[in-house]
Amino acid sequence: MLSPRLFVCAPEQASVHPRVLTVSPSKANRVFAPRRRVPMQSRRTFALWLFLFCLISPLAVTQVYKVTDLGPLAPTAINMWGQVVGNLNGQAYIWTQFAGLKGLGTLTGGTSSYAASINDLGAVTGTADGPFTLISPYPSVPNEYCSDLTQPFVWTAGQGMHGLGGVVPFYNIYPWCEELSFYGAGINARGQVVGYTGAYGTIQYGLLWTSTNGMTVFGGSWPPTFVNVISNTGQMVGQNSTGADFGIGHATSWKNGVATDLGTLGGAIVLGDCAFAIPAVCFGSSADGVNDLGQVVGWSTTSPISQYESSPVHAVLWTPSGTISDLGALPGDTSSSAWKINFFGLVIGSSGDTPFFDYGPTSDYGFPFEVIGRPFIWSERSGMQDLNTLISAKSGWVLNSATGINFWGQIVGSGMRNGKPHGFLLTPKFHPEKE
Q1: Each residue of 65-110: pLDDT tens digit?
Q2: What CATH number should be reported for the domain holding residue 254?
Q3: Which of 25, 41, 59 is the last residue of a domain?
């Protein structure tokens, strides 16, 4: 008669499926028996983490996806519950598996809205237009009522959409309503919102809004200065530019009031008249995604740049210790940019030959940069892969961009289905069917 066996789940390096290890009871007693009594709470915590590890570990090696058609929606983000936000015909929308598409509306008196991010509690941020009174910080200058201020918003299922307004970061452009604009880019589980101001000449700031302190602006004050995302730990990342580098931004992390220049593929930071130097001496970079472990992704130029000399850019990954890694580009492409990274280090982005500065709600000067081409997923195990090669060849889809990835490895983006523009949701398949 066979003796009973103890089984545990472990990741299989050569397969997308977990394997089962068997251990005899006598050996199990020697290997697994604790030397002292473990509290029940600790056992439950260990069991939960073991379950999550066994469940999630295949995500890092999954090589095929199921495609869900999101219709004409242009998705921008997805949370861990599979809630997707995006935009359609100048309006912000949310999509869920059971309810489908739902419009988020506009601010009272406004005409448009743009969804940029959703947290794991279902709160959405983005940009909308609507009335707001800008409070003057100067005794000699009155407050100014703006009938149609471009501003960040927060939307929740219970309270709908409300505007976050703006602040007056500088004095010399009165009247403010005609010149100032504010954009929402990211929201974390605490409800903290980050974004950036529109560029006015040589002036631009990042912004942070909290329910306690309202909106504050910060950064190098020169374009390009953006805050693109905030993690649940409060780490904000984006791009920062100062007068010293004169318009050549660097990837930057802000936490607890401290700004850290993350550097570039060019190594040491070079300060000087970067924009007009001949020959070019300065590298540029930007941070576009961060996870709760402090891993940051974005892009860096691969050679020096100036107003007169351009350079390809490559997707990069910064570790929490600050080490930068070049993720390369897909075969045949000269450039790439990384967009988001999830808890398990899976990175999405785009690889191609065409730079683009307008993924935001308008096409004004002073918006972040990305690469137009083929969407990719990158993992430490498999490197960079074209997402089009990881879906069924018979699906009728051509995937054009990947804009969001969640805890479980689900990916959203935009593409063409049978020649028509559609949004998509990719869900990992652990038991791929044979075609």
Answers
A1: 999 999 999 999 999 999 999 999 999 999 999 999 999 999 999 9
A2: 2.130.10.150
A3: 59
Q: What is the pLDDT of residue 146?
A: 96
Residue span of the structural domain in which 44 resides: 6-59
In a domain, 399, yes or no: yes
* Helix H or strand E encompassing 133: strand 124-134
Which one-letter DSSP state was computed for residue 178? G
Give CA–CA dist 427/416, Å, rounded. Answer: 18
The verdict on residue 204 lying in a domain is: yes
Q: Does 1 reside within a domain?
A: no
Which tens digit of pLDDT belongs to each residue from 174-203? 788 888 999 999 999 999 999 999 987 778
What is the number of domains present in the chain?
2
Q: Which residues of the chain register pLDDT less than 70?
A: 1-63, 171-173, 243-247, 268-280, 306-309, 355-368, 431-435
Of the residues 14, 37, 59, the one at which a domain ends = 59
Query: Model-level pTM?
Result: 0.83
293 and 374 co-located in one domain: yes
Kindly state the tokens that stand for 171. Answer: 């004095």
| 312 and 369, same domain (yes or no) | yes
Q: Based on the domain organization, do 37 and 173 belong to the same domain?
A: no
Indicate if 27 and 94 belong to the same structural domain: no
The phi, psi pair for 300, rounded to 5°, reads: -145, 145
Radius of gyration of the chain (CA): 24
pLDDT in the model for residue 267? 72
Provide the pLDDT for residue 428. Answer: 96
C-alpha dihedral over 52, 54, 55, 56, to 10 degrees?
80
42-80 burial: b if 16+ Cβ within 10 Å, else e: eeeeeeeeeeeeeeebbbbbbebbebbebbebbbbbbbe
Write the single-letter amino acid at 58.
P
Which residues are paired to 138 by β-bridges?
Answer: none
Give residue 12's pLDDT: 35
